[in-house]
Amino acid sequence: MVTDEKQALAQVAYDKAMKYELDFGCCPHCVLAAVQETVGVIDDSVIKASHGLSGGGGLSGIGACGALTGGLVALSAKRGRDRDKLDKGRFINNFKKGQELVERFRGEFGGVTCQELQHQFTGKTYDMWNPEEYKAFDKDRGLQCARATATVTKWVVEMM
User: Fold this and answer.
1) Which of 36, 67, 73, 135 has its CB surrounded by the most CB atoms within 10 Å?
2) 144-159 and 4-23 are packed helices; what angle lies between their axes, rounded to 10 degrees?
3) Is the pLDDT score of 25 beyond 60?
4) Domain-wise residue ranges, the chain
5) How far apart are CA 35 and CA 52, in angstroms?
6) pLDDT tens, 98-146?
7) 73: which DSSP letter?
């Protein structure tokens, strides 16, 4: 059950993530920065480390959506296994929360990879390394990536 206070905080995080994605891009950065500013937990080094996760990982399109991976990183920063506990089990509850996020994302957006979302949002996929195709994707996607980024951020704050 999500409290009124947590819902309000989640909405603030949603608004921040939406603005960051529209202004700056790099969906995992935007998720993590908004989570950091609303509930803490995320160190600057985690945000920096997430940079390569954008666009399905290295802008490849073939991996998980960067917004989703940013959300998974945020959940793990809160619930994951600490370095000094590597020998203490798998910490399965973190995986359960991660799976919950993945399935909710799939249900809302119709896929989990960057290319699946590109296709859902525009009807085709793009080579993010081709400047003309990236420009076309940026235009064709409209607010869809920003909405996915903001939605994941909201869900993560509610789940924390």
Assistant:
1) 67
2) 150
3) yes
4) 4-159
5) 18
6) 999 999 999 999 999 999 999 999 999 999 999 999 999 999 999 999 9
7) H
